[in-house]
Description:
The protein has one helix at residues 13-20, and strands at residues 27-34, 39-48, 51-62, 65-72, 77-84, 90-98, 100-112, 115-122, 128-136, 140-149, 154-165, 169-176, 181-189, 197-205, 210-222, 225-232, 236-246, 249-258, 267-274. The chain has 276 residues and is mostly beta strands.
Amino acid sequence: MSKGPGLFTDIGKKAKDLLTKDYTSDRKLTVSSYSSAGVALTSTAVKKGGLSTGDVAALYKYKNTIIDVKLDTASIISTTLTFTDIIPSTKTIASIKLPDYNSGKLEVQYFHDHATLTTAFALNQSPVIDVSATVGTPSIAFGGEAGYDTTSGRFTKYTAGISVTKADSSASIILGDKGDSIKASYVHHLDLLKKSAAVAEVTRKFSTNENILTVGGSFAVDPLTQVKARFNNQGHLGALLQHEIIPKSVLTISGEIDTKALDKKPRFGLGVALKP
């Protein structure tokens, strides 16, 4: 693959991951293992409120092909096939969730040194077609995406964005919701290993005249322990602690509280990911 500007979904992704990734109020246990044949097996159990769910997944890599199959407690079988470089500089992803045969989806990604292009469409009689493209370099990229419903003949979405990336920081601006919202974010890394960082994000909703400002960050306490926190102007405060118990096995404890609510009862989540 090329070292180009990346996909459109990469614009603003660093800030989004810092502010949302691993924050949860659920209880989650993940156990992974690897067979001698090279198959990665993952079992996940989640308890959310009084509801418990789970799934078992198997992932197999062979040359330029990845096969990912998942069975959950709702008896849904999710299958994803990923092929790299069938055509040079491309990645093809086919997916389906059985027994819903209309859930099939095909996505093709093309990578160039100065541009990327993605096309995705549903494999049914009235597909929704999504197209996105970026141009630029790894340092600066401009992009846009659009979704079109072939049944109604209308656009389901159109979004534009720009990102600027430096060695110790990155910034992005995204115009989304069919032009009804704009989001600007900035991430600054505090160390050379990029394990500690500060982030700020502001979102403006034009139709409701609403502004949301969120600040947060992550800090590496030691090589095995990471803490994260976030806070927005609506009074939502979240924090999490991650600790590597043994190599590749991580314990995550997270919590969130609405500081403006009358009942300031915090919500806590617990996650354990075990890998051999």
